[in-house]
From TrEMBL:
Gene3D superfamilies: 2.40.50.100, Nucleic acid-binding proteins, P-loop containing nucleotide triphosphate hydrolases
Protein name listed in UniProt: ABC transporter
InterPro entries, alphabetized: AAA+_ATPase, ABC_transporter-like_ATP-bd, ABC_transporter-like_CS, ABC_transpr_MalK-like, ABC_transpr_MalK/UgpC-like, Mo/tungstate-bd_C_term_dom, NA-bd_OB-fold, OB_MalK-like
ABC transporter domain boundaries: 5-235
Species of provenance: Simiduia agarivorans (strain DSM 21679 / JCM 13881 / BCRC 17597 / SA1)
Keyword Nucleotide-binding: yes
Length: 355
């Protein structure tokens, strides 16, 4: 049986407020999908609807080709991991892992086999006798993940599982989740507002905004070819630079003209007003006493330097190597990579593609 998840024209309301509207999405068997978006965009609402924890107003949800739109959570063929762990505090880690299987009436030997297997995968064997209060945050979350694994469901849902952990533990557990997916190949739907988590874990990222999916694509496509201005600005740190101007004809390539920038593009694009977006690492700085840009601030981050450069009242954020010799007040020339940029419509915010 394949563990595909299909969502068709899903709408969810709270009172008369629309939280998710007409959303459709197909998640392939074994795929790792991350739902990413700013706070309040509806990610958890969508996940909870898939889990069966809230009612949907319109639309259908299919799991493994079965219509589960109105099915009980336990009958959907999925298991969920929550941000808050939700472990039973009076039970040991081992009892927490076994609990749902006991309730489901599994034989003792089967329960032990499944608990032992999950404990081995998650390196929980030495901790099985401890209560949650005797575990660290990372260990508790591993128990919570184990509790979902022992149920041996084809679809796993994760709701911001790492957000209660400190940065180092988050990185460690992120890797464990990735390994886990490579090993088990479950279909995995993972909610986060952390773009590093999304970029590193996902086969495809669904970027959400106001209850809709703005773009669903591989991390590389989301980063290099954002479909909308919103996605372009939301993904990447420091954020993409934007400048409003005019695309004019040129043969074979168009020209982009703004007060702050004139750039010959790499191909012919539809003429007219547009917004150009360019990532900080697609701009190359060079010290030049005759340069038109002034270096206002230089930030050293260890691996890189972030430069804040000004011309015509516009500030450009540039990412360069950590050995860059400039200092505040220096004059610069900036070279803009004309193969690594995005153009957006000023009216719709949608990406403008070459003719
Ligand atoms: N029970 C509820 N009643 C009314 N409004 C709700 C309810 N639950 C959520 N909302 C609203 O629905 C919207 C989406 O919430 P949701 O929790 O899905 O967002 P999210 O993208 O997961 O955000 P976060 O990252 O902050 O968890 C928010 O505006 C929220 O205020």
């Amino acid at each position: 049986m394949t563990n595909q998840v299909t969502i068709e024209h899903l709408s969810i309301k709270h009172g008369d407020q629309s939280i998710v509207s007409d959303l459709s999405l197909t998640i392939d068997d074994g795929e790792f999908i991350v739902l990413l978006g700013p706070s309040g965009c509806g990610k958890s609402t969508l996940l909870n609807a898939i889990a069966g924890l809230l009612d949907v107003s319109e639309g259908r949800i299919f799991i493994s080709q079965k219509d589960v739109t109105h099915a009980q959570p336990k009958d959907r063929g999925l298991a969920m991991v929550f941000q808050s762990y939700a472990l039973y505090p009076t039970m040991t880690a081992g009892e927490n892992l076994a609990f749902a299987l006991k309730v489901a009436g599994l034989k003792k030997t089967d329960i032990k086999a499944r608990v032992d297997k999950a404990a081995k995968i998650l390196q929980l064997e030495p901790l099985l006798q401890r209560k949650p209060s005797q575990l660290s945050g990372g260990q508790r979350q591993r128990v919570a993940i184990g509790r979902a694994l022992v149920r041996e469901k084809g679809v796993l849902l994760f709701d911001e599982p790492l957000s209660n952990l400190d940065a180092k533990l988050r990185t460690e557990l992120r890797l464990e989740i990735k390994k886990l997916h490579q090993l088990l190949k479950n279909t995995l739907i993972y909610v986060t507002h952390d773009q590093i988590e999304a970029m590193t874990l996902a086969d495809r990222i669904a970027v959400m905004h106001n209850g809709k999916i703005e773009q669903i694509a591989t991390p590389a496509v989301i980063y290099r070819e954002p479909a909308t201005r919103f996605v372009a600005e939301f993904i990447g740190s420091p954020a993409m630079n934007f400048v409003t101007g005019e695309v004019s004809a040129g043969n074979p390539a168009s020209q982009f003209n703004a007060d702050e920038l004139q750039l010959t593009l790499n191909a012919a694009y539809p003429q007219g007003p547009a917004e150009l977006g360019i990532r900080p690492e697609s701009i190359t700085p060079e010290l030049d006493t005759q340069g038109e840009f002034t270096l206002e601030i230089i930030e050293y981050t260890g691996a890189d330097c972030i430069l804040w450069c000004k011309n015509n009242h516009h500030t450009w954020v540039v990412k360069t190597h950590s050995q860059f010799p400039g200092k505040a007040g220096d004059k610069l020339t900036l070279s803009f990579d004309n193969s690594q940029f995005s153009l957006f419509s000023l009216t719709t915010g949608k990406r403008i593609y070459a003719n």
